[in-house]
Amino acid sequence: MQNTDINQVDLQKCSRCIYDERVPSIYFDYEGVCNYCRQVESLSEQYGTGQPKGEALFSVMVEDIKLSGRGKPYDCIVGVSGGTDSSYLVYLAKVKWGLRPLAVHYDNTWNSAIATMNIHKVLNGLDVDLYTHVVMNKEADDIFRAFFLSGVAEIEASTDLGYAYLLRKVAAKYSIKYILEGHSFLEEGITPLGRNYFDGKYIQSIHRQFGRVKINSYPLMTFSRFLNSALFHRVKFIRPLWYIAYSKENAKSFLSKHFDWRYYGGHHLENRMTAFYHSIYLPQKFGSDMRNNTLAARVRNGTLSRNEAWAEYNTQLMIEDELVAYFKKRLGLTDVQYQQVMETTPKNWTNYPTYKKRFERLRPLFFLLAKANLVPMSFYIKYCFPAKAPK
Ligand SMILES: [Zn+2]
């Protein structure tokens, strides 16, 4: 039984949040505060989050977005997952800011029914059009399977990257210049890079080695596609919740009340692959439990005490019945194969070819692109600096 009082735990830990020495690339300053707390502090300062400065910066952007969309059917894209942040962002965009968003959803076919219903309830209620890209099961599952067999942690990499590329493609198709994303560093933090790396080369190299079917329809974001989109199409990525005041709890109650939106019972559980990744794969194979990212963020923003967050971090993970059986069946894995992968020593992203070194070499370029919102600032912060992979 782990100790549920953070002050009694024999690990070096941050004096402000609940991160401890096990978090990748962590260090503590003279006040005992971790670098991730300092990162959030400096982002809040820079973006004026929830302050008049942030609100003012963002209202200028809203005007630019409107201007860029004149004479076109849409002025921005909002990526939707059925979760709290993106659902609420559609509401803000349409009702509060008077924008004309097109909602875009990347369906990796592992969605829970609740997520799909949530998307439709909110979008119908707001009369917002939806563009859905449904992946070809056979290809997408083959990439998932290849990642699982390769022994690395990032089995969801193809969804995250496919989604990022889809947003860029749809923006190009409809000549939309702005993409709004529902991320909030105050509610989620910036997840440490650790076992959380992905790029097009990584997907390609792992699939080449462990895949079985040819990839035709999966939207693979190669380096040249990434750079072309940023430099020539110049679509901008804006994260409104980095500027304005936002409370996830309030957003949840608002959505339930006005759209009959339903909470899916746990962070990331809106998708069965995500649920497998967070509640089974990471904890059981890598001894890693990413709930500390959200919990640490909530301690920083004052919605939980350090001890409450620590106690919650040490509760059992919720595991959906039959999730492992479903995972094995869909990916065509025998019990023996599954067991073997779960028991072998983890690999990490440095064991396979990636674009990481190239991103680091081009850091000055990506700094300018991030400043101009042409690539996400979190991409610059996480990917363009040397980082050690976890052991
Ligand atoms: Zn901290």
Topology, pairings included?
Layout: H1 35-47, H2 52-68, E1 76-79, H3 84-96, E2 101-107, H4 113-126, E3 130-134, H5 137-150, H6 157-173, E4 178-180, H7 185-188, H8 200-210, H9 223-233, E5 236-238, H10 248-259, H11 272-286, H12 291-300, H13 306-313, H14 323-331, H15 335-343, H16 356-361, H17 363-371, H18 377-383
Parallel strand pairs: 1-2, 1-4, 2-3, 4-5
The chain binds zinc ion.
Describe the structure.
- The chain is mainly alpha-helical and 391 residues long.
- The two termini are 25 Å apart.
- Helix content is 51%, strand content 6%.
- Strands 3-2-1-4-5 form a five-stranded parallel β-sheet, with helices on both faces.
- The mean pLDDT is 92.
- It has one domain: 3-Layer(aba) Sandwich (Rossmann fold).
- α3 (84-96) packs parallel to α4 (113-126), α3 crosses α10 and α5 crosses α8 (200-210).
- The structure holds zinc ion.
